[in-house]
Amino acid sequence: MADFRIPERHAQLLEYAQSLTPPSGWKIEVSGDEIIMMAGPSVIHQRNLLIVREQFDTHRPGDLMPSENTDLASPNVGKLRNPDLTYIPVAVVELGGNDVPAELAAIAVEIVSPSNPENDLVGKVRDYPLMDIPLYLLVDPREAAITLYSEPGDGRYHRQWNGKFGDTVPIPEPFGFGLVTAGLVRYPV
Predict the structure, then answer these.
(1) What is the pTM of this model?
(2) Which of 34, 53, 68, 103 is spaced 20 to 30 A from 87 at the CA atom?
């Protein structure tokens, strides 16, 4: 028998997570019945994010704005995720508040954390298509690997492009460009 209170329980968990005040440099995410707290990123993480963001900024449509560490919420599926970088409609500012409906995001970009890689490699690959985020760009400095997920539907991404640092990633519309990755930096081994 289905539990029709699940969206209500998810909404309550999201509300609780959003009421928490994490220590400086930490962020909070929710996936199902789990609250995930993560430490701030390293300098290599930030450098890689800058390389990616500068290229996306050059190719972003005028109606989208970049946002780093913005809470993307999907109460009906019990998800609150905080990508390293996302592009959301400029008009979302009119909504106010601290979180953005996830389905408004054009992309989620993650630089894999060396301390908790499963969150990006498993949890977010599972959650982002459920949240109707059309593109998920995953940069893994541990392995010098890049994956672009696209075409979400039926709870998963139907397309996956895999490459390595140095390859050019074919970023589809609404951005429509080749992401140059030669300058990305690996984590020390």
Answers:
(1) 0.80
(2) 34
**10 Å Cβ neighbour count for 107?**
25
pLDDT one-digit tens code per residue, 3-25 = 444 567 667 777 777 777 766 65
pLDDT digits 0-9 by tens, 22-62 = 666 566 766 666 777 665 567 898 999 999 999 999 999 99
List the structure tokens of 145.
């690997």
Asked whether 88 and 65 are in contact (CB, 8 A), the reply is yes
Which position has the token pair 């300058």? 183
Q: Any residues with CB less than 8 A from the CB of 158 and at least 6 apart, and which?
A: 150, 151, 152
| Dihedral angle of Cα 85, 34, 39, 140, to the nearest 10 degrees | -50
